[in-house]
Amino acid sequence: MPCLAQEIAKKRFSKAQSQKKEWSKECLKEVKLRLENCEDPDQISNRMKMERKEAPSHETIYKMIYENRYEMGIYACKLRRKHKKRKQRGLKKQRRSPIPNRVGIEHRPEIIGKGHWEGDTVIGKNMKGAIATFADEESKFLIAQLMQDKTSQSLNQAAKESFKDIKHLQTFTFDNGGEFALHQDLTKTLGANCYFANPYHSWERGLNEHTNRLLRQYFPKKTDFTQLTNEEIQLAVMAINNRPRKSLNYLTANEVYFNHSNCQSLFYSSNLDLYKPVASHA
Predict the structure, then answer these.
(1) In Å, what is the CA distance from 242 to each residue of 44, 80, 163, 184?
(2) Do 81 and 123 reside in the same domain of the chain?
């Protein structure tokens, strides 16, 4: 019986494929006119039905465009999302590369004091180049370092360079990107345990997500990171750390991290001194 049912289903599918509906010239003319006016397929289909006209479904209109039926391929540029082909529906989210010996955020100790850092990467144009970002949960203090690529080796190198002079270092919290796969090596070198947020729970690392958006003000999407220098990144970081923050009662991250509440000016130098506020002598 299952074999017979499968054969019947195949015949029905084959018949349906061979009996594609032919649309009238008037119908196709109106669909093309509406596409030219930048209406989307859903609007076209339902409006024509409401007007009691012959109307293809919105999926059929998409197929007409992406399969270039009735010479309608030229209207792909009129769609809001100018994909070169129709995306398949119902696909599962792509699984990320597994993190060996991953420890979930639920096992992270209570956040008390400085030294609990959220880490992430900001990616450049065409997925080339990256910036490693680390934000202290208590003070919102940002550290960032240019990476050659998004590999775990480059991430660890950037982290080790960033934290070589940092005293406050207790934990790291990352997302599940493959660049954090060598977290055990990072723990061994820096002495801070690494924890991972749940997949697709970006709010568990809300500070880092917000801080990355601040960094994007200086390096918008489609910025070619291969043309950036680390000095340019540090100047942007310095500006962010010296910005009054509502969540800090309008103190700056620099002032909170370094326990200094007076007005400060920043002097550019290397390593940790780059971020440290120095009292103005003016």
Answers:
(1) 51, 39, 19, 33
(2) no
Alpha-carbon span 48 to 62, nearest angstrom: 16
Q: Going by C-beta distance under 8 Å and a sequence separation of 6 or more, which residues neighbour residue 72?
A: 28, 31, 32, 35, 64, 65
> Bigger pLDDT: 269 or 106?
106
Q: How many domains does the chain have?
A: 2
The enclosing H or E element of 65 equals helix 58-66
Residue 136: inside a domain: yes
Q: Is the pLDDT of residue 118 over 60?
A: yes
| Shared-domain flag, residues 198 and 76 | no
The answer as to whether 31 is a domain residue is yes
Closest by Cα among 118, 141, 142, 136 to 233: 142
User: Do 48 and 146 belong together in one domain?
Assistant: no
Q: Give the structural domain span for 60.
A: 24-86
For residue 99, tell me if it sits in a domain: no
Extended beta strands in the chain, E state: 116-123, 130-136, 142-147, 171-174, 193-196, 244-245, 251-252, 264-266, 277-279
Query: What local confidence, expressed as pLDDT, does residue 265 receive?
Result: 38
pLDDT tens-place string over residues 161-218: 999 888 889 999 999 999 999 999 999 999 999 999 998 898 899 999 999 999 999 9
